[in-house]
Amino acid sequence: MSFVVRNAAPDDLNSLTELMYEYIVGFYQNPRPPVEKIHNLIQTLLDQQNGIQFVAEQDGKLVGFATLFFTFSTMKADKITVMNDLFVMEPFRDTEVESQLFLECQKYSQNHGYARMTWITSTENKRAQIFFKKMGAAQGKDWVHFSS
């Protein structure tokens, strides 16, 4: 399987938008955000001030993406990355494509002086939990996640 993992680029806008809708609506079955909001998010990430997006490409077609947001941890008293998204199309799950996207996020975080990379996944997403453990991640036990 020949593929490349790279930073998202302006030319990826339409393909990345489609892939993000597959993730948001198709995979997680959330409401479809307006295209303007998706484009604004992609543009924000292209600027690499608040985060960065990586894409996996095979034969000129995007087959996956990962998103890191930049923030801080009071507990670490340092900057951290939050891997908000790691998504690959169904045929590429549990393949080198998925692993390389994850490793690219780790490498970026380490190479840019972040104290740690953190992320969450749905409690129902058992496949992702198995993948993260295979990649050497430790599951947190001390915190309960909330949102509003």
From TrEMBL:
UniProt-listed Pfam families: Acetyltransf_1 (PF00583)
Alphabetic keyword roster: Acyltransferase, Transferase
Top-level division of the source organism's lineage: Bacteria
Single GO molecular function: N-acetyltransferase activity
The N-acetyltransferase domain, residue ranges: 3-148
Presence of keyword Transferase: yes
PROSITE patterns linked: GNAT
Name by which UniProt lists this protein: GCN5 family acetyltransferase
Organism name: Paenibacillus terrae
Source species taxonomy: Bacteria, Bacillati, Bacillota, Bacilli, Bacillales
